[in-house]
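We recall that each integer encodes one residue's backbone shape. We quote one record:
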Amino acid sequence: MNQPKTIAIIGSGFSSLAAASYLAQSGHQVTVYEKNATIGGRARQLKSDGFTFDMGPSWYWMPDVFERFFADFGKKTTDYYELIKLSPAYRVYFGINEFISIADNLPEIVATFESVEKGSGAILEQFMAEARSNYDIAIKDLVYRPGVSPLELITLETAKKVGQFFSNISRDVRKKFKNEKLVQILEFPVLFLGAKPSDTPSFYSFMNYADFGLGTWHPKTGMFDVVKGMESLAAELGVQFVTNAAIEKIIVENKSAKGIVVNGTAIYADVVLSGADYHHTETLLEEQHRAYSEKYWDSRVFAPSSLLFYVGFNKKIENISHHALFFDTDFNQHAKDIYDTPRWPAEPLFYASFPSITDASTAPEGMESACFLIPLAPGIEDTEALREEYFHKIMDRLETLTQQEVRKNIIFRQSFCKNDFVQDYNSYKGNAYGMANTLLQTAFLRPKLKSKKVANLFFTGQLTVPGPGVPPALISGKLVAELINKQFSKA
């Protein structure tokens, strides 16, 4: 039986919310402290002028992970929110009147591939069978391991796939598909994971199964529905929430975490768990208590930062889908501008989301809400002038590719970029997605869930295991809760 403990959790993103529920379920007294006015971490909402925007994640992938999370509490996702499967899942634009729509089911996607490149339909079916097998191994098994030892990765199933850890997505995809457009569609999910496809192990093809096999979903009134659902569950379990609570220090006595200083007040706890940025959390400790040096953080490969625009239009936008990727410029060059020679890309790829196509609550009647995202190198210069320049770059392309004028119909606009990621989320170098999933930053090679220097100090979230993205964040919360419970179950 667990000894009930008081647990202070820093930050209220997905991993913190998940951990809070698991720990409260085990009988602990849990309080979540959030520096911003609302909970959700990067998954906050922006409401203004009748428009509603999800400020962070907008793709709902891997629905099975969310189901598994709620099932751990005898609940279903439908107890908290409703899901809509998007059809098409998304559209990829390559030029004027030149786009490929990705359907909401594999047979149609196979037919689309075949129509673009003869013979590729059958190859895609084989590729997806492999991707599905990787998904089953990764998501049903591997990612639920705590990243403590290399031995966690060695199973009968992974032994058969060892070659896939040493090859990469780009090489594998290009062996099978010749058409550049199809190659880019298959490479983009890992680019979202925060690394170049040429640096991402082939095993991560399971993301393609998440995409084509499981589909893209939308919570009925946006991703914030998931935050509200998780908050409700946590509250039902007795979790307390404190907002506008900036953490100034982690209290350490005799090499053991004893609590936190919040807005100048010391709050004592048996366990401190941080779901905030890992690097930032360690700056709340005196130097001798930090497990990782500045040199270590500087040597890591981080996922991109982003330039985001939240835009309200006073009319409906034509020739667009709920999710749209604009790949009408050089994919590889933009990847180099992020990872190899960090700089603002001359011709950026960008992503656009028009949630009001699916969800009428996000915009006044007859109007459109939209979010635009350009991936950028972390740590990059960020000025108002650059934001403005890049806004016009993507608006020019949106107007050209969809054959309409839209700029004069903008009635609301707000930007969010590297400086805001630092300011609002204490994000290292303003990264948006955490640490990239390269081979040398996988599983046990990522920063640890448990501090090596300070007893009773734990971490969760996208800089630790299993990695970036919302589903991995839920899993990270579960893993750290299990570690904490394991430590105190001896009593």
About this structure: Residues 120-140 form the longest helix (21 residues). The first strand starts at residue 6 and ends at 10.
